[in-house]
Design brief:
It is built from eleven helices and ten strands. By secondary structure, it is α/β, with parallel strands linked by helices. The chain has an eight-stranded parallel β-sheet, sandwiched between helices. It has a two-stranded antiparallel sheet with strand order 3-4. Strand 6, helix 7 and strand 7 form a beta-alpha-beta unit. The longest helix is centred in the N-terminal third of the chain and has 20 residues.
């Protein structure tokens, strides 16, 4: 067995309903996201054939490698005092702090499984998500930077020197970028709608200091569809990754760029996630012995979410599987914008010269 899943009913305990009298979820990042994945995939072969890894809580020593002790304590106290809106967008409940510790610790479990060669690929189906969380601030439904904690753990425990992060969530992975912006050991690549919340992620932001050239942003105009993701993967991600030579690939797997998502304005189809997942698995096989860890980020239309997770997990199991339908192409004016964007990124990125 080469594929693992880390998930649990525990992640439903991060309650964002804000409607205790009715029990209805009016916040998009709700426990129904995990529940829908369970219902959709629980009886599928790819679910049953995956090794199901136990969760664990992250230790304070591990957590403090990314987040400040003062910040961690503030989240703990806020949740213990009953929770609520900890920032403009992020809702917590009394159980959210403990649940977030388990979400972060589960990434570390995935790193252990992959780096000790127990498994090749792991999908961490966890919540709350993490790619907006800053070292000292909650943001965008995120409490702790799950993927960043996993990458830091891989570098410190297993002496991994090069990690490639692919973030295909519709929103810029600003937290991950911030944490590794001065770090040459992590190549972060983010596709995201732009201009759009959190209003960061310019293509000219390429890292600073030792990290200069190790941050690649691919800002996507509103309403663009599959082709820009596929073309930039082929012309930017693959060449940069081959130059970088990662020892591990980590994916911030958001599915909110889908055309049916209620929060974003991109137009990806189900096929796009098949093509992206297949390419990511092929890149891992080529460059790092298949070692890849995906972690759930956004995706707020439940049908699109479960189809996206299904696609990624399926290609973890079957990286050579065929894709029945082609991806959506752009009209000519948009094709010209794609070319301009790609040319602009190549011009300033050292890994692409």
């Amino acid at each position: 067995m080469s594929v693992g899943i880390i998930t649990s009913d525990i992640f439903k305990k991060h309650d964002t309903s804000e409607a205790t009298l009715t029990g209805k979820y009016n916040h998009p990042e709700s426990p129904q996201r995990i529940e829908s994945i369970f219902l959709h995939l629980g009886n599928k072969e790819i679910w049953k054939k995956s090794e199901h890894i136990l969760t664990r809580s992250i230790t304070m020593e591990e957590l403090y490698k990314v987040h400040t002790p003062e910040y961690v304590n503030s989240v703990k106290q806020f949740c213990q005092n009953g929770g609520g809106r900890i920032d403009e967008d992020t809702v917590t409940s009394p159980e959210s702090y403990a649940t977030a510790l388990i979400a972060a610790g589960s990434i570390l479990q995935g790193v252990d499984a992959v780096m000790t060669n127990q498994l090749k690929k792991v999908f961490c189906l966890i919540r709350p998500p993490g790619h907006h969380a800053l070292p000292d601030q909650t943001m965008g439904f995120c409490l702790f930077s799950n993927l960043s904690l996993g990458a830091t753990y891989a570098m410190s425990k297993y002496n991994v020197e090069r990690i490639l992060v692919l973030d295909w969530d519709a929103h810029h992975g600003n937290g991950t970028e911030k944490i590794f912006y001065n770090n040459k050991n992590v190549l972060t690549i983010s596709w995201h709608q732009s201009p759009f919340w959190p209003f960061s992620g310019k293509y000219t932001d390429i890292g600073e200091g030792q990290g200069q050239g190790y941050n690649i942003n691919i800002p996507i105009p509103e309403a663009f569809t599959d082709e820009i993701f596929i073309e930039t993967f082929d012309q930017i991600v693959i060449p940069a990754a081959r130059q970088f030579k990662p020892q591990l690939i980590m994916i911030a797997s958001g599915y909110d760029a889908h055309h049916s998502d209620p929060l974003a304005g991109l137009n990806l189809t189900n096929q796009a996630y098949q093509f992206l997942s297949k390419r990511a698995m092929a890149l891992a096989e080529e460059l790092c012995e298949g070692k890849i860890i995906a972690t759930l980020e956004g995706g707020y239309n439940l049908d699109a979410l479960v189809n996206g997770v299904d696609s990624t997990l399926n290609f973890m199991h079957h990286p050579d599987a065929n894709i029945k339908n082609d991806y959506e192409r752009e009209k000519d004016d948009n094709k010209r914008q794609i070319k301009t964007l790609i040319d602009s990124i190549i011009k300033i990125q050292p890994l692409l010269k």
